[in-house]
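Hi Y.,

Following your request, here is the sequence exactly as I used it, all 307 residues.
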Amino acid sequence: MKLDFVKLQGLGNDFIFIDDFSNEITLSKKQVAFLCDRHFGIGADGVILVRPSKHAECAAYMHYINSDGTLAQMCGNGVRCFAKFLVDRGFVQSSAGHFVADTLSGPHPISFNVDDNDRLTDATVDMGHPILDPQEVPVDASVNAHTSEGIGYVKELPIDSPFGTFAFTCVSMGNPHAVCFLDSLDSLPSDLFTDQRIRSIATFDVNRVGSFFESHHLFPEKTNVEFVTVNDPTGISMRVFERGCGETLACGTGTCATNVALALTGRSGRCNDIHLRGGVLHIEWDTNDHVMMTGAAREVYEGSIVL
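Below is the corresponding structure, written out as tokens. Let me know if you'd prefer a different format.
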């Protein structure tokens, strides 16, 4: 089978896009793993099949598959790249300025800007409201805090590990997230840093620690794991271990969940620029309880491959 594809990236979180408006393409886990392999395949964090939507108000449906072949409900960086794919290829008129994208987590309104050549430069995605109920996140833990509106959630739940105890605030943005604030890097074991002379979020061993918590029994559907510092010289910095992928350069839903956790724990307000390894995302948790994410999307190249 020959596949035409486009590779796009949002802050270094990269995806293989395939036009499947015919709704005829089925990829096995082995084929997805091959496509995403950075040595023998194209190389990506996931594959996105662009399919027709069952909802009349939606321009298209984003079928997102992680690099390990599992389905994901939503991907923030992926949906901005989805917008660029649709706008740049004329499936959405560049003059429209907005449309609705369909995802496994439901429809998401998107507004966008274009350059002088009518190519999308950046997009703002309505990521919906955060889900805090532990059963819906899901996390097997009891409510231990409440928002000002009386909504119960799991705040800074301590979980033991071979590396010590880490505390997680649990939020779903259509997919599960466990947000850990690294408030005291000096208190962590030195062997958790790739450069033991420099204790910073940049040298923290995210893959080692994140892989343990991703599959912890308290997370029945596994979880994305975010590690965050608030007083970093650049501001708020985040690194992420994505469920089914490992560490990626950016995670849109993870950044949204982090912004919510920042506000819930009183570490910051509801509107922040959050620095990731691949760049900066602007996140606002608005007064209507929706989380708005703004960031860039870029095309890398297009080509074809035989499976």
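DSSP finds four helices and 19 strands in the chain.

Thanks again,
Q.
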